[in-house]
Write a structure and sequence with these properties.
heterodimer; A: mainly alpha; 88% helix; B: 182 residues; alpha+beta; five-stranded mixed β-sheet; four-stranded antiparallel β-sheet
Chain lengths: 57, 182
């Protein structure tokens, strides 16, 4: 059980770290760049969702 | 089997999107108008990269440098147009003291073709400040403003008096040997 708590904690740190870096980076992006990133992020999450849906999760 | 291949396709497409986001970060970071400033004082060249000006405290206080009284300050300003269109702007460099412009060092229009760069040079001499009637003796602090279109770069330039360096080592003088008393 403890190992899963540690895994969860590690994943949380990774996600928050990547989120923080992305937020810092986005500040310096141009407006078309931000729009393209938003479109690609939406598509990426949609495709991930579809992938897990196909696998029966 | 086909369903598995289809689900893998979704995964690959998602990874392609992720790589696309990273590519946008890199390409968008590269594209744009970049200016690099080189300041040479007393034979030491200082390079101020475009990233330096992004820091919040720099926007307020500017870049600070100093030199000995009487030394000329050499400026070199490189403008890079990393975009697909021609860049046209005016470049101005001036010296300010107490919120008043005292000397115009440069006023030039630049036109840059896509992915071209240009370097502008100018020198600030104490004589120019003296001529303008703003040389304040031994010490003096001035603001150098460089304007590239809407972008402004601020440099605080300090002059200080010449300080004596280390004393030269003098070899010991031979001590005369006293003659033996008789």
């Amino acid at each position: 059980m403890r190992i899963y708590i540690l895994y969860g904690f590690g994943i949380l740190l990774c996600v928050s770290g990547v989120g923080y870096l992305a937020a810092e980076y986005i500040k310096n992006l141009s407006e078309p760049g931000k729009l393209a990133c938003l479109a690609l992020t939406t598509a990426m999450f949609g495709l991930f969702g579809k992938y897990f849906d196909e696998r029966g999760w | 089997m086909e369903a598995k291949g289809k689900s893998n396709l979704y995964l690959y497409l998602a990874l392609v999107c992720f790589v696309g986001i990273l590519a946008i970060f890199v390409v968008d970071g590269y594209l744009g108008i970049y200016d690099t400033l080189y300041i040479t004082v007393q034979e030491h060249e200082q390079v101020i990269e475009p990233d330096y000006w992004q820091q919040s405290w720099v926007k307020e206080s500017g870049y600070t440098t100093g030199t000995r009284k009487g030394e000329p300050v050499y400026f070199r300003y490189k403008i890079e147009n990393r975009s697909f269109s021609t860049y046209l702007s005016n470049v101005e460099a001036s010296v300010w003291k107490g919120g008043k412009k005292i000397l115009q060092m440069l006023d030039e229009d630049v036109q840059l073709a896509p992915f071209e760069d240009v370097t502008l040079d100018w020198t600030l001499r104490v004589e120019d400040l003296e001529k303008a009637g703003f040389w304040a003796g031994e010490y003096g602090e001035y603001t150098v403003r460089i304007e590239l279109g809407q972008v402004e770069r601020k440099i605080i330039l300090s002059y200080y008096p010449e300080v004596p360096g280390y004393l030269e080592k003098i070899p010991p003088q031979p001590v005369p040997v006293p003659e033996p008393s008789r």
